[in-house]
């Protein structure tokens, strides 16, 4: 049994052989106790008989010692076999896991909008965490059983190459997600900017210039606030093309996106131009209403003087005459 060359053809078989070998080692240990008991019992015999018995006991002990040596050697061989088959099994599990992830990465899209990209990035982050744990397990497996036999070294090389390819695929997928995120983020911000510019254009192109001094002043004040906001957006419009150039080639070359960028630039210039005209029109309206106010004040003053002159009578008393004369 101890000289057997059968070390198992897979991990379960090796475990079974180790279990049987453990029973054999226990049996050998029990026989060791019996030999020690026989050696002690030999002391009770006469000198001649004791010598014969001691020699036989010594022979048994020598045979037992050989058995113990063979048992230890076979255990070493079986444990080495278990390490080998454990290595192969763990490597096969790692390769199967790598294959699953390769299929998942090959089938994964880059998202349809910001929401789906955010969800995919969360999934990718979880996958990176799982990848880190698997990497540590694989390194441990390779460290424990990667050396030695040529077949084992070849297996180590293969799984390392597959792992390297998986990490490259993971990096490429992350890059695609980041590019898609920038693309959809830029598209969303561009859409918001266009919507804002259209709203502002409707405001600055209004033909309401007020109906009096107060309403014109109110509209002019609000218009100045709008103009300040328009000016704040100048840098955002000016950087659109730089942002577009930073996108991935497959994204920045889209005709629709380029058209929207040009539309935003042109619309901004139109807003600025119309806002400038409205500023002037509001100021003109305010000047007109202020002139009307001054004219009205003059008319009221003239009317008061006319009424006074028409009602003026020359008093009969000298003192009263002097007062009227002074007023006149």
Give the key terms.
single chain; 328 residues; mainly alpha; Methane Monooxygenase Hydroxylase, Chain G, domain 1; 86% helix
SSE diagram, text form:
Elements: H1 11-41, H2 47-107, H3 114-145, H4 150-204, H5 213-232, H6 234-238, H7 240-245, H8 249-252, H9 255-311, H10 318-327
Provide structural commentary.
InterPro entries: Spectrin/alpha-actinin, Spectrin_repeat. GO terms for molecular function: actin binding. The chain is mostly helical and 328 residues long. 86% of the residues lie in helices and 0% in strands. Among the domains are: 1-83, Methane Monooxygenase Hydroxylase, Chain G, domain 1; 181-296, Methane Monooxygenase Hydroxylase, Chain G, domain 1. The mean pLDDT is 88.
* Radius of gyration, taken over Cα atoms and rounded to an integer in Å: 50 Å
Structural class: mainly alpha
Query: Remind me, CATH topology of the domain at 181-296?
Result: Methane Monooxygenase Hydroxylase, Chain G, domain 1
- Give the mean pLDDT: 88
CATH architectural designation of the domain at 181-296: Up-down Bundle
Protein name: SPTN4 protein
Keywords: Actin-binding, Repeat
GO molecular function: actin binding
Organism: Scytalopus superciliaris
Provide a quick synopsis of the model.
This protein has helices spanning 11-41, 47-107, 114-145, 150-204, 213-232, 234-238, 240-245, 249-252, 255-311, 318-327. It is mainly α and 328 residues long. The chain is rod-shaped.
